[in-house]
Amino acid sequence: MAFELPKLNYAFNALEPHIDAKTMEIHHGKHHNAYVTNLNAALPGSGAENLSIEEICKNISKYSPAIRNNGGGHFNHSLFWEIMAPNAGGAPAGEVAKAIDTDLGGFDKFKTDFTQAGATRFGSGWAWLSVKPDGKLCVCSSPNQDNPLMDISDCKGTPILGMDVWEHAYYLHYQNRRPDYMTAFFNVINWNKVNENYLKAKK
Ligand code: MN
How far is the CA of 159 from the centre of ligand 1 (A)? Predict the structure, then answer.
């Protein structure tokens, strides 16, 4: 069964002024679409043909670099579109807010650490908020299209929030100003969805 590009739950321009419509259109329609196409092309004969994208990530060391890069790209972006929303941002809510207080020293500290994770990721990659195998939250970053689900990850866990820090995520509007993009990203975080992901990951 071939993977498909998921539909966005909002219009390309819905996240403006924080993330511009052109960036969203190219990011979703070209970049994510290419990961899906290339993943589907890499699957035949790999042994991963009938696995979910989560199962592929969890066993990624068994598969080719093409599956690692494009499978990671598909999982990461599918999560990314969902943890953003118009009229969102602000402070976290629900159980994940309590866990950020307990496990990460509060929202302000989390914001600093998460931004730092994105800022110090040299080149292309992602910053993550994940639930570790022991149930606690953690912040880390990964290179390229790797993610914490992958068996090769040095910060294993279930990602519940991811911030894309590839230049393609911000260059049209912010050029080289990754810090400005990261500040803006906090205005579009869909904390209800992150909380939902948290509760699911804790089960
Ligand atoms: Mn991207």
Answer: 16
Nearest-5° angle of CA 103, CA 105, CA 110? 95
- Cα(27) to centroid of ligand 1, in Å? 6
**Residues of the chain falling short of pLDDT 50:** none
Q: What is the pLDDT of residue 1?
A: 66
What is the Cα–Cα distance from 160 to 80, expressed in whole angstroms? Answer: 9
How many whole angstroms from 186 Cα to the centroid of ligand 1? 17
The pLDDT score that the predictor gives to residue 203 is 87
Distance (Å) from CA 102 to ligand 1 centroid: 31
Question: Which residues, 6+ apart, have CB-to-CB distance to 166 below 8 Å?
Answer: 124, 125
Q: Using a CB cutoff of 5 Å, list residues around ligand 1, an ion.
A: 164, 166, 169
The pTM of the whole model exceeds 0.85? yes
Q: Is the dihedral of CA 9, 7, 193, 32 positive or negative?
A: negative
pLDDT reported for residue 110: 98
- Closest by CA position to 54, among listed 180, 116, 131, 147: 147
